[in-house]
Every structure is written in structure tokens, then in C-alpha cells.
Amino acid sequence: MTKPALHTEFDDIAALRAALDQRKVSAVELAQSALDAAQAAQDLNAFLHIDPALTLAQASAADAAIAAGTAGPLAGIPIAHKDAFVTRGWRSTAGSKMLADYVSPFDATVVERLQQAGAVSIGKLNCDEFAMGSGNENSAFGVVRNPWDPAAVPGGSSGGSAAAVAARLVPAATGTDTGGSVRQPAALCGITGIKPTYGTVSRYGIIAFGSSLDQAGPLAASSRDALALLDAMSGFDPRDATSVERCDGAVNEPGRIRRDFDAAQSRYDGAGARPLAGLRIGVPAEYFGDGLAADVQAAVEAALRQFEELGAVRVPVSLPRTELAIPAYYVIAPAEASSNLSRYDGVRYGHRAAEYGDLNEMISRSRAEGFGDEVKRRILVGTYVLSHGYYDAYYLQAQRLRRMIAQDFQRALGEQCDVIMGPVAPTVAKDIGENRDDPTADWLADIYTLGVSLAGLPAMSIPCGFGQGSHARRPVGLQIIGNYFDEGRLLAIADRYQQVTDWHRRVPSKQDA
């Protein structure tokens, strides 16, 4: 019988930290265990760049800090970063040929803060090119495979992060969520992922896709593990113009989310056998329409019944512009992508064509060779909607619709319910290559996640079951949406569910992989 990897022999990050403090295991041993696991799972294609020397140097520093009594809350914990975050030492490619050999001279703020907390990076994780995709099929370095079913996608764009956590290659990983790219892969891989309120986590050093939408978030096995990363990642950053200094009166700093989590848990502890008594769960009718697969609906309904057993009350709500989030997002996001990606011209950095006549031809050929089809598609859409004569008709109208979508959420969360719950995606993970003949089909699968991103709200996905029939090995996720700056309570609510269920503890077997 194969011995489990050392870093998987502990229940969660808290148990890992306790073992490190008690000298039962060293950070170097944990790092080597994770490096070995990543090497053994190359068939998943989750990692793009691993440098054992860099990893073991960080691990040695963590061991020294633990010995000196100066260790941070994540000291010695192996993690990995989505390749949308720039990192010193490791390549930062955003899954694109355009940046195939790029090494950043600085770390993203998220990377920097997690390293300051003591986390040890195992390497960089595969993702859809420039975070554009829902299946991790758009990476220039190949598709990532779902650890539960190698024939299926892991979701995207943070597919490498989700696959690495689901396969227990690392306890947790970073991701980015522009239109659902933390929540959707978390759902399809049976793990926990959270997108915080826009502005609570610095965007500095995230390779930009949609500047008014991009937000970093963690992926982990459980809500408590996600909390450990998110609390360390969050905080005001003067280098990011979109970073907020205060969160509904509270200073935006590490520790804020954990304080809110602990306060919520204290209230729930005092409620006895029905800890969530009085919690109003809004269930949008629009999330349970004809497009929702029967097996996904069954798993989500079972999760909602479990929350009712914990004391929560189900409240019907309406988000009438749910379907309109798709056209609004796919005008705004490509417009911002067109602007952000204009910097990749082959002049300063990035891919440069080998043959060209003049400057214009060099730029044109470099971009044609460096960008993949999905990125080109979105650049073309974005350039069109921003062009003279179409800006008012498309981009301005989409921004107006965005405001109305946010108002729909505020009416529900401000007047009718405390949180909103529903599916993350209409179906379980699709087969690799399933939508090859219809490149925009994946856009429709984001229907339940896009509105949250447009509104800038926090939301998370937790595992709540599996599909049925031929999809019985493919996970289903439950989405929990909260009001602005409500991350701590969302994580506490998810934790109460995870205390009485075991979906988050299930791990793909060797037979699955």
C-alpha cells in the first residue's frame, strides 16, 4: 500500500501548524513532500513551474522563524500560486505564450503577504490564458485535468489551483476571480473557494484581465483553511488604486476577516443544537430555471435542507436580471481586456516575432503569434465595443445594466435575506473538448457567478455532492453570496455546514486519477 504524502497526514492547516510548532515535522519535510507529490502528478498538468531550490529556501526560513519564536500564522504551510500572480524567481506567464519566459522583478502583494505570513510556495499553477476561460482549456501550456475524472475539465480560469488542492498536492492555493474563476473551479473540483469583496485584497501584481472585476481569492479543502489564507492576503495596499482602506467602518487589514469569523462562530455556539437559527437564506428563483441540470439541482436542494436543519430559514427572492449579467459581463470584461492587453506589443517585454519588416508589422505579428484564440476573440470584442460609434450603444449600456444588477442584490440582501444560496454552475464539469465547436458556449455556463462579480460582492463555493449516472465522480458546488465585506460570516456559515457533512473531506482516489 502506498504511503500518503507527509503533508496530507494532517486534517487541516491548523493541524499542520500545530505539528510544526511541536517539532513533529519540519517545514523542509513538508515542502519536500509537496514537491514530490507535484512531481508524481504531472499527468494533471496543474503546475507550470517548480523550482525546488527556491521552495526549500523558503521552507528553511520558516523552520528558522519557528525555532526563533517569530513565525507567522502560515509558517511552513505549503501553498502554490496561480500563474496570474507575478513572482520573483518563478516564471509568471499567465498561461500565455506571450509571457512564456517572463520572470518578474517583484512579487505581487498577495504573494508578498503570504510569504510574510510564512507560507512556502511550491510553484506556479496552470490557468486559462490571461484568466480568460471556464475550463482551463485555453492555456498555452495544455489543459489541466480534473483529479476526480481525467476526462473532465477542472474549471477555470483557476483550474490548476483547484486541481492541485483537490488532488492534495498542496493544502491551499491562490486564484483570481473575474467572473467566477475561483468559485467555478472550486465547485467542479469539490473544494472550497472564496472571492472576497472587490477591493479588500490587493490587485497589485496580478496580471490584469478586467481591472474593475479581477479579485484574488484562496482555494482550499475547507472554509477554515480558506480563512487562513484570505485573512493573511487581505488588507489595504497603497500601490493598488482600487484597494479600500476601510470595510464598512473596520480597517482593511489582516485579522479583520478572522475577527468577523470568530464573532459569528461565537453567536452560533450560543444557539445550541440549531446554530444558524434566524439566518435567512435567499433562494433566487432565477437560479433554478430550465438550464439547471437535475443532478446539480438535487445536490443543491439537499444542501439547503441541511442548512434548514441547522436552523436557517429559506426565503424566496428574485434577481430578475440574472440572465442579463452574461451580455453585460461579456461587454465590460472584453473592453477592459482590450485596454489591459494593449501593453503586450513585443517592444518592452513579452513575445516578439522573429521576422518582420517595420514596427507595425512587428507588433502585429508578435500579438498574432503570442495570443491564443480566446484572448484574440475577447480583444476583438472589447475593441469593437469601445470604438467610436459603439461605445454608447454597448459599453455605456452594459455599465448601466451593471448598476441595476448590483441594486437587485442590494434589495435582496438589504431587505429580504442575510445570504443568498444556489448553484455555482448549471452542470458538473464538462468533458475536455466538449465545446470545441462552439467557443462561446462556456460563456453561458457563468450565469450564476457573473452577477456577483459585476456587483463586487463576496461569494464562495463549497462542495455539496456529486453528479449522477455517468457523472457520479464529478463534484457539485453550493454558492453562498453575502453582502459587502461579509467574508467572515460567509466562512463561518460554510464551516457550520462542513461540521456536519463530509463532502469537503472526500479526496479523489488513484482509481479516479
From TrEMBL:
Top-rank lineage group of the source organism: Bacteria
Role summary: Allows the formation of correctly charged Gln-tRNA(Gln) through the transamidation of misacylated Glu-tRNA(Gln) in organisms which lack glutaminyl-tRNA synthetase. The reaction takes place in the presence of glutamine and ATP through an activated gamma-phospho-Glu-tRNA(Gln).
UniProt cross-references to PROSITE patterns, sorted A to Z: AMIDASES
EC number: 6.3.5.7
The name this protein goes by in its record: Glutamyl-tRNA(Gln) amidotransferase subunit A
GO cellular component: glutamyl-tRNA(Gln) amidotransferase complex
Any one Gene Ontology molecular-function term assigned to this protein's record: glutaminyl-tRNA synthase (glutamine-hydrolyzing) activity
Protein's organism: Achromobacter aloeverae
Catalysed reactions, semicolon-separated: L-glutamyl-tRNA(Gln) + L-glutamine + ATP + H2O = L-glutaminyl-tRNA(Gln) + L-glutamate + ADP + phosphate + H(+)
Residue numbers annotated as active site: 82, 157, 181
Gene3D superfamilies: Amidase signature (AS) domain (3.90.1300.10)
Biological process, per Gene Ontology: translation
Keyword annotations of the record: ATP-binding, Ligase, Nucleotide-binding, Protein biosynthesis, Transferase
Database matches in InterPro entries: Amidase, Amidase_CS, Amidase_dom, AS_sf, GatA
Quaternary structure and interacting proteins, as annotated: Heterotrimer of A, B and C subunits.
PANTHER family noted in UniProt: GLUTAMYL-TRNA(GLN) AMIDOTRANSFERASE SUBUNIT A, TRANSAMIDASE
Family, as annotated: Belongs to the amidase family. GatA subfamily.
Annotated ranges, domain Amidase: 30-491
